[in-house]
């Protein structure tokens, strides 16, 4: 059924499908420019869609923004970010519907990866888009945005795409799950790690427009699938392994 077993993927499934009121409140508090009765409508990962996560043109389609596909094709090559969660942001004032892009982690080192492995043509497009994002954020061009913090950098670039390239209201939330049993990280550890991450991208202490770090406690897997017994989980997991190999 697409249910995750652990980590940030599991936490997103729980919060979007079981605790969305609490989730929405935490996000609304983090973004001070949200109107008091702004409505956040999640489009992924939904249980009805087997917790599907979207990328490339599919994430635009999920947000009912497929008309932006030609612009996006000039901004980023295929094989872009897989979004942990996506939502439509509907202000009460009748202003244009916006989008909420969400990336989340269970522990700080999860933010670092091998960097981009794009081919020459795709890399040229990526570097051009990252460069315009650096300019928007007034970041220096000394730190590499295509190495171990590439994932964070490309999420910022996608925020830039919506805000500056196509003029769609957008917000980017970095969800940091506290004390996830998968890899426990305290609130204090998270609050130390995030400024260091931004400093490594030469963003420093400057506020990133329309971006916020959100800290929220991890929840047990039983909230997502309370009817499953441990033996059922083990059997299902073994079935997935057999299918994989």
Low-pLDDT residue intervals, each spanning 5 or more residues:
none
DSSP helix fraction: 40-55%
For the CA atoms, what is the radius of gyration? 18 Å
State the order of secondary-structure elements, H for helix, E for strand: HHEHHEEHHEHEH
**Main sheet overview:** 5 strands, mixed
Structural domains: how many: 1
Structure commentary:
By secondary structure, the protein is an alpha/beta fold. The protein has one domain (7-244). Helices cover 40% and strands 15% of the residues. The protein has 8 helices and 5 strands. 31% of the residues are buried.
Structure keywords:
single chain; 245 residues; alpha/beta; 5-stranded mixed sheet; 8 helices
Brief sketch in words of this structure:
The protein has 245 residues and is of the alpha/beta class.
Layout of strands and helices, then pairs:
Layout: H1 7-17, H2 20-30, E1 39-44, H3 56-62, H4 69-75, E2 85-90, E3 98-105, H5 120-137, H6 150-165, E4 170-178, H7 187-200, E5 211-217, H8 230-244
Parallel strand pairs: 3-4, 4-5
Antiparallel strand pairs: 1-2, 2-3
Helix pairs in contact: 5-6
């Amino acid at each position: 059924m697409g249910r995750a077993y652990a980590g940030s993927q599991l936490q997103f499934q729980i919060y979007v499908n079981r605790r969305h009121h609490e989730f929405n409140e935490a996000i609304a508090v983090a973004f001070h420019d949200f109107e008091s009765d702004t409505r956040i409508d999640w489009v992924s990962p939904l249980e009805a869609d087997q917790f599907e996560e979207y990328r490339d043109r599919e994430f635009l389609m999920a947000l009912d923004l497929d008309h932006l596909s030609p612009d996006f094709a000039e901004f980023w090559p295929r094989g872009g970010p897989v979004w942990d969660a996506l939502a439509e942001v509907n202000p009460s004032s009748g202003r244009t519907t916006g989008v909420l892009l969400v990336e989340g982690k269970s522990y700080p080192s999860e933010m670092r990866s091998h960097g981009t492995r794009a081919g020459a043509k795709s890399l040229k497009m990526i570097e051009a888009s990252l460069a315009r994002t650096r300019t928007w954020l007034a970041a220096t061009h000394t730190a590499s945005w295509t190495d171990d913090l590439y994932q964070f950098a490309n999420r910022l670039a996608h925020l830039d795409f919506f805000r500056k390239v196509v003029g769609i209201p957008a917000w980017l939330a970095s969800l940091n799950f506290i004390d996830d049993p998968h890899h426990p990280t305290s609130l204090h550890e998270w609050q130390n790690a995030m400024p260091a991450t931004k400093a490594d991208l030469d963003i420093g202490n400057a506020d990133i427009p329309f971006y916020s770090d959100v800290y929220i406690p991890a929840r047990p897997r039983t909230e997502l699938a309370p009817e499953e017994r441990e033996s059922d989980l083990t059997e299902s997991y073994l079935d997935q392994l057999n299918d994989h190999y």
